[in-house]
């Protein structure tokens, strides 16, 4: 499976490191162009390459979108259409500018990106601090293996993403669909930024659902 990563900052770089480490072919991109990613690609090794965002979208069987939410309309929607997209983005109005629909919680940031891209979008990795992502990988069964909440409305896509999360040393926890489920791991929720095991996080989601 080939993984494209649009956005090569804190989160995108950490994910690229994990995915190359476990053997996936990875393409990374940013807004300034592939030439600015030479150092990162050298660090990532032979399984990595830098492309434009549009090329990255075409390259990936799965494409991670990890950019400031306020720039989502710049994503190459034609090439992301129908792809499995992993959305790590969060809406922070002070950084992204105000979006009245999001401020009134009429829709979620992930649903906006899904609508723009026409992708099969799964929300994941948005709730883990990048340093915990970079350094938190643990073998299956380790008592301190961290949980990653995942939401999406397509069960098959969610299963693919859950497998990728396990591959890189974390435990996926299903939060539900992209609407109510996605709201369970947005900024301001108890799981956001928290270091929890899968058992702790599942218990919390279960309690909230009752
Ligand atoms: N930092 C965290 O701990 C954390 C944790 C969970 C989720 N998140 C969320 O994940 C997203 C990324 O966070 P981050 O901390 O990794 O941000 P970051 O370090 O600021 O990196 C953002 C990346 O996005 C790229 N980018 C911006 N606009 C783009 C576009 N139109 N096309 C392609 N690439 C574009 C930037 O490239 P240029 O530099 O070339 O513009 C940069 O590589 C955000 O939505 C954030 O809220 C962050």
Automatic annotation (TrEMBL):
UniProt GO molecular function: oxidoreductase activity
Keyword vocabulary terms for this entry: Oxidoreductase
Family annotation (InterPro entries): NAD(P)-bd_dom_sf (IPR036291), P5C_Rdtase_cat_N (IPR028939), STEAP_metalloreductase (IPR051267)
Domain Pyrroline-5-carboxylate reductase catalytic N-terminal residue range list: 2-91
SUPFAM superfamilies: NAD(P)-binding Rossmann-fold domains
UniProt-listed Pfam families: F420_oxidored
The protein's name in its UniProt record: NADP oxidoreductase
Species of origin: Streptomyces xinghaiensis
